[in-house]
Amino acid sequence: MTDPALIPPQPHGQLTEARPEVSPPAHPRARRRFADRDALLAWVFLLPSVGYIVALVAIPFFLAIAFSFSDVTAGDPSFDWAGLRNYQDVFDDPVFWRSLRNTVVFTVVSMLLIVVLGKVLANVLIADFRGKWLVRFLVLLPWTTPVALSTIAWLWLLDSVFSPIDWVLRELGLIDANMYWLGKPDLAIGSVIVVHVWRLVPLAAVIMMAGLVAIPKDVQEAASVDGAGFWRRMFEITIPLTLPVIAVAALFGAILTFTDMAVVYVLTRGGPTNSTQVLASWAFFRGIEGGDVGQGAAIALFLFPLLLAAAIAILRAVRRMDVS
Amino acid sequence: MTGEIELLRRRARRRHLASRITVYLLAILAALGAAGPFLWAGITAFKENRDLYRRSNNPFLFNLTPTTEHVDYLFSGTEFPTFVWNTLWVGLLVTAITLGLGLPAAYSLARLDRPWSGPMAIAIFFVYLVPPTLLFLSLSRMVVAFGLQDRTWSLVLVYPTITIPVSVWLLMGFLRAIPKDIEEQAMVDGYSRLGAFVRIVVPLVFPGVVAVVVFAFTLTASEFIYALAFVSPSAEKPISTGVPTALVRGDVFFWQSLQAATVLVAVPIALVFNAFLNRFIAGFTHGAVKG
């Protein structure tokens, strides 16, 4: 078995570099066979990760599809085929439609605000100024803090009685009575959007910073010498050149908004009367707190088409980034 | 002629000054907008009840002498230390699993140049985009089947699915930044491919390993929905679900203690994260641009 003649010759096209055929006598041949064969090693190195992901991402995903056609509940976990009944029930429920609409509204509005504010913030953060380190640290806080915790700070900023925002507005004489930010449907929706935007703008800014840094300086300088002002350079050079990066930032913002339920869960629990419910939180209330796993799975699966669209869009943007 | 130049120069100077002022104004505004809630939470944490619960008091100032009793209560009277401990050991284990599986995978994808490397790298990246909110219901049934429900170990099992894809992507960027000659030289010197990886590449990619440790730990500490769905006894909860659910007794909010917890968790994570920010940017763009 250790006869070197038995080792199949490595196909040459697969090797990137022609390695000099040095066989150090210190290594037993059998060990060399394994440790030096790139093709085998590549799989051995990769398989544990792939296996982990298949076991705990791919299988649960198909399981979720199966559950959505079943009558599995927390109390009765036996799997019985239920056909489209879960989907029927979900469609008959006005809260589902409300959640779907809210998910789309939250995502679209947040994404627009995140892109605009993230772009401004990225430009500020790459400028040179004193105290930049401190500013960067403070600006990144909303993103690095676990979302459930930062939402707690907001929960009280928006308190019905002691809200500091109301206090400021009262002192300025703009309002007489409190606003009840989380108690009125429109204000609650606005509040959820504000917290999402606040949390994700730093991430968008960081992604866009990476794009801005990559623009060659001479392009900017040449345009500047030619007499292009700040806004012209912004709209005719910077934005077109960084468009793929902006798209990536926007899509990350969108994915993190429409798949998230922590903000809604901590801030409003979907209230008042389900007016801020989103697909993710509704699936949670149905599937975990209500124990109806089948219906919860059916609701959560409606995230998938949205997700797939976003993923394809990201792939395209990254491809374009490759080219430029 | 000289007058004209002087005029131009003065105009340029004025424009320069205006742009400086704008940058500083925007920077201050951004810092206040982003960190405002935390600054205010920090003040609140030290307020007395009589100061806090009076509508007419200025909420941004100490109207009565500051007190540390609520911070003390957080550590002595609540399960906050348990949450911190749970988060720490779960985070450390998850990080170890992530590195153990992710580093060889990243090496395989970045260096061993199989024909499937490119598509596989993109496929792994896309796993990162699969959100917990899509999987938590079926995973919670799986966790029950494994007998791990209501135990922190369920999080150790599941969190690597979030951290491995990002870490592989990050590490690929770092690995590409190491010149190939170094490994080739090592192999000429008699190391096998495996030997070159263990002895030469792993030490060189150490900065990337540190970045992954920070990143994986941060992701683990922030995760919310798995922790909420899998673990309900408060002694087993991590910070992210423990603080918002278990520190609220009925309708009573321990506001000052809650705010103290927020700031105490936020500041250290952000400090460490900031130290590595440039690395993350570099890692992600390397991985993306050359993928």
Look at the structure and give the CATH class of the largest domain in chain B: Mainly Alpha
Mean pLDDT of chain A: 82
Oligomer: heterodimer
Q: Helix count of chain A?
A: 15
Per the principal axes of the C-alpha atoms, what is the gross shape of chain A?
globular
Distance between the termini of chain B: 56 Å
- Class by SSE composition of chain B: mainly alpha
Number of strands of chain A: 0
Dominant shape of chain B: flat
Mean pLDDT of chain B: 86
Largest sheet of chain A: none
Fraction in helix of chain A: 55-70%
Biggest sheet of chain B, strands in spatial order? 1-2
Rounded to an integer in angstroms, the radius of gyration calculated over CA atoms of chain A is 27 Å
Describe this structure in words.
The complex is a heterodimer of chains A (324) and B (291). Helix content of chain A is 69%, strand content 0%. Chain A is mainly α. Chain A has a domain at 94-145 and 198-320: Orthogonal Bundle (MetI-like fold), CATH 1.10.3720. Chain B folds into 2 domains: 1-53; 77-288, MetI-like (MetI-like fold). Chain B has helices at residues 2-45, 49-52, 69-76, 80-111, 117-129, 132-145, 153-158, 160-177, 180-188, 193-204, 206-222, 225-230, 239-246, 255-275, 277-289, and strands at residues 248-249, 252-253. Chain B is 77% helix and 1% strand. Chain B is built from 15 helices and 2 strands. Chain B has 291 residues and is an all-alpha fold. In chain B, helix 4 packs antiparallel against helix 5, helix 4 packs across helix 11 (206-222) and helix 8 packs across helix 15 (277-289). The chains are: A mainly alpha (324), B mainly alpha (291). Chains A and B meet through helix 1, helix 2, helix 4, helix 5 and helix 6 of A and helix 1, helix 4, helix 5, helix 6 and helix 8 of B.
Entry summary:
The complex is a heterodimer of chains A (324) and B (291). Chain A is an all-alpha fold.
